[in-house]
Amino acid sequence: MLGNDWDELLREETEKEYFQNLFEFVKEQYQQKDIYPKMNEVFNAFRHTAYKDVKVVILGQDPYHGENEAEGLSFSVKTGIRKPPSLNNIFKELKDDLGYDYPKSGSLLKWADEGVLLLNSVLTVERDKPASHRGRGWEIFTDAVIKKINEKDTPVVFILWGNYARAKKELITDKKHLIIESPHPSPYSASSGFFGSRPFSKTNEFLKANGIKPIDWNLNK
Predict the structure, then answer these.
(1) pTM to 2 decimals?
(2) % helix / strand / coil in the chain, to the nearest 5?
């Protein structure tokens, strides 16, 4: 399905009854409605970041619900698409933290290829209907993914922005991992502690301290 080590790791999960029911629901939805991201991009986060390569997890809620925005990665939009306010705020913090110029594209694929798993808790959404696929089983699946990453032999940085993501802390039990948490980058909460939280430099300091190659966060290369 994905062409990397996630296939074997997730096989048992995808064979469970809840996932089979979820898969049938999602398949019907794609046939009847405008669903994002495109069907072949639903698992992009896993396809671009193999389990063995995961150094960082940035957890989102569900995909962007505007036309052609979502590309299967949390907070990321396709090149050429207007950047949503939360992503603009992420880029503002990136510049304040590491000095990198504001990226031309809103696509975070480069981060995914660097070892940043850009994981939404829910992986599909109906056009213009945020949270429309919550409670259908995606959360069970992605919670299982977080638990698998918690079991990794190597330290991982979990970046949790906002209350929804921070609630996943209970799944991250291995003390060798680092949890970085702050308010959500949304315009409604970014000024309450997201700005100035310096998640990018903190992540790289931790990775380097553990002998792991840091993330190149510069999207302009």
Answers:
(1) 0.97
(2) 40, 10, 45
**Which entry of 7, 34, 62, 143 is annotated as an active-site residue?**
62
Task: Decide: 124 and 63 in contact? Cβ < 8 Å.
Answer: yes
Distance CA 67, CA 128 (A): 8
Q: For the chain, list the strands marked E by DSSP.
A: 35-36, 56-60, 116-120, 125-126, 157-161, 178-182
| Rounded distance between C-alpha atoms, residue 27 and residue 149, angstroms | 27
Quote the CA–CA distance of 80 and 27 in Å, as a whole number.
Answer: 28
Within 8 A by CB and 6+ apart from 109, the residues are: 48, 71, 73, 76
Active site annotation includes 34: no
Is the N-terminal amide bond of 37 cis, ω within 30° of 0?
A: yes
Give the integer Cα–Cα distance in Å for 156 and 179.
9
Q: What is the pLDDT of residues 170-214, one digit of tens each?
A: 999 999 999 999 999 999 999 999 999 999 999 999 999 999 999
Q: How many CA atoms lie within 13 A of 195 on its CB side?
A: 12
